[in-house]
């Protein structure tokens, strides 16, 4: 899988933007304040980690609407293409993590009226709202009461055995459509999945976006590095899944070690425990005891206490190190995760200004790490950069996107250096600049 198209409308500095992305390496260049960061923010908004509180989080504010025009919706469309592998079969999708979920699809019968169809070709405003028309209570009732337009898919009993594997086995095109609009003083957001067999077919709507990290695993590293955000440890984040796969909660060695730590901590805090465990507390809260521990008590949560330390002459947590080492460690961990934990499918890594706070040798190291992550075109990277180190290469095919800002809005275009002759142009530093 790879992100093949990104369409943005009315988001931050972007009034309207339509970009093509390629497998492998995509480099976004442009002057400061041209809108490069907003492109990555839009990708993260749609393809980033999907938390259970996604709809409640304040990832959209009034300031995110182009020129503050809250009377117009923000619309972001991410199109994802499924690869054809050797033998002509489609790339495998592993639905294990979502096997117990379900969603309903809408049949887009060409004989029905336009109100029951989805046309994305021209991105007309009417069509954009039609994508989301069934998310209202009235629309929900329409679906629930009309079997013609729905079909349940997944692992629930009411899906009647029609699994994700069956539904998607012949589908090669996917898309995630996001819309945010202001209504009665509140910002409302919707995110839906669309898919189709080929580019010649109509889109099918599936109202459940828990599948987005199954279709393409994504990690977005912003310019302001913060390991606690990029390396969140929870059940839905890639880093949480990595640690859970490695930390065996039933390990006897680990259990014995924690028991020893508990004994030591009980001794250290004995005096403090006795002083605050007064008789009044016991009377008000009978059979209540207090203890101080250095580690989680439940075996299932052991991996959540993991901290990363880096010794560069001074041993301290990764969060206390510079942005350069934070980027290198995060990229290496994500690369390990996609190669050794999820195994199948393709992954997307987006990094904003990977050269930040790095000397030239450090930049080359990060550039090499990104090239290895691409893995011959299996995975996809998207970076924004101001340095020639990430452009001056003969060994890679790269899609270059040049972003500029006109009087009010960001505009962009794709520039290709795919032939040997064209690649030679970028070898000279001044050309790359």
Q: What key attributes describe this structure?
A:
433 residues, alpha+beta, 14 helices
SSE arrangement:
Layout (H helix, E strand, L loop, with lengths): L1 E10 L2 E7 L3 E6 L6 H12 L26 E8 L20 E5 L18 H7 L5 H8 L6 E4 L9 H5 L4 E11 L2 E11 L7 E3 L5 H4 L1 E5 L5 H4 L7 H9 L5 H17 L1 H7 L2 H6 L24 E3 L3 E3 L5 H18 L6 E6 L7 H15 L5 E6 L12 E8 L4 E7 L3 H8 L1 H4 L1
Parallel strand pairs: 3-14, 3-15, 10-13, 13-14
Antiparallel strand pairs: 1-2, 1-4, 4-7, 5-6, 5-9, 7-8, 8-9, 11-12, 15-16
Task: Describe the protein in words.
With 433 residues, the protein is α+β, with helices and mostly antiparallel strands. It folds into two domains: 2-247 and 306-432, 3-Layer(aba) Sandwich (Rossmann fold); 252-302, no CATH class. The chain contains 14 helices and 16 strands. It has helices spanning 36-47, 125-131, 137-144, 164-168, 212-215, 227-230, 238-246, 252-268, 270-276, 279-284, 323-340, 360-374, 420-427, 429-432; strands at residues 2-11, 14-20, 24-29, 74-81, 102-106, 151-154, 173-183, 186-196, 204-206, 217-221, 309-311, 315-317, 347-352, 380-385, 398-405, 410-416. The protein has an eight-stranded antiparallel sheet with strand order 2-1-4-7-8-9-5-6, covered by helices on one side. Strands 10-13-14-3-15-16 form a six-stranded mixed sheet, sandwiched between helices. β1 and β2 (14-20) form a beta hairpin. The chain is globular and about 75 Å long. The protein starts with a strand and ends with a helix.
């Amino acid at each position: 899988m790879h992100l093949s198209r990104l369409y943005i409308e009315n988001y931050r500095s972007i009034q309207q933007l339509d970009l093509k992305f390629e497998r492998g390496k995509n480099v976004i260049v442009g002057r400061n304040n041209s809108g490069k960061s907003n492109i990555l923010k839009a990708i993260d908004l749609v393809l980033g980690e999907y938390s259970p509180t996604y709809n409640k989080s304040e990832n959209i504010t009034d300031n995110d609407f182009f020129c503050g025009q809250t009377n117009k919706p923000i619309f972001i469309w991410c199109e994802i293409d499924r690869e054809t592998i050797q033998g002509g079969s489609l790339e495998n999708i592993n639905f294990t993590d979502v096997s117990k979920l379900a969603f309903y699809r809408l049949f887009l019968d060409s004989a029905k009226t336009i109100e029951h169809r989805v046309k994305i070709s021209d991105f007309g405003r009417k069509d954009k709202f039609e994508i989301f028309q069934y998310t209202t209570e009235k629309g929900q009732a329409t679906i629930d009461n009309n079997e013609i337009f729905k079909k349940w898919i997944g692992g629930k009993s009411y899906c009647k055995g029609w699994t994700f594997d069956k539904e998607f086995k012949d589908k090669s095109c996917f898309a995630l459509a996001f819309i945010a609009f202001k209504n009665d003083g509140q910002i409302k957001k919707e995110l839906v999945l669309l898919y189709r067999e080929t580019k010649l077919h109509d889109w099918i709507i599936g109202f459940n976006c828990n599948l987005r990290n199954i279709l393409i695993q994504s990690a977005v590293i912003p310019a302001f590095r913060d390991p606690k955000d990029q390396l969140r440890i929870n059940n839905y984040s890639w880093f949480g899944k990595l640690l859970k796969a490695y930390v065996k909660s039933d390990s006897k060695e680990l259990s014995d070690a924690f028991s020893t730590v508990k004994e030591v901590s009980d001794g250290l805090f004995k005096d403090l425990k006795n002083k605050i465990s007064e008789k009044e507390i016991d009377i008000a809260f009978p059979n209540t005891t207090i203890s101080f521990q250095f580690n989680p008590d439940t075996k299932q949560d052991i991996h959540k206490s993991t901290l990363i330390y880096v010794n560069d002459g001074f041993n301290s947590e990764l969060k206390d190190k510079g942005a350069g080492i934070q980027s290198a460690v995060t990229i290496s961990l994500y690369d390990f995760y996609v190669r050794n934990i999820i195994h199948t499918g393709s992954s997307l890594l987006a990094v904003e200004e990977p050269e930040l706070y790095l000397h030239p040798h450090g930049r080359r190291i990060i550039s090499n790490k990104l090239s290895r992550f691409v893995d011959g075109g299996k995975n996809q990277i998207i970076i924004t950069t101001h340095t020639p180190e990430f452009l001056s290469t003969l060994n890679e095919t790269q899609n270059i996107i040049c972003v500029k800002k006109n009087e009010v809005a960001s505009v962009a275009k794709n520039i290709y250096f795919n032939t040997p002759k064209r690649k030679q142009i970028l070898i000279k530093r001044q050309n790359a600049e």
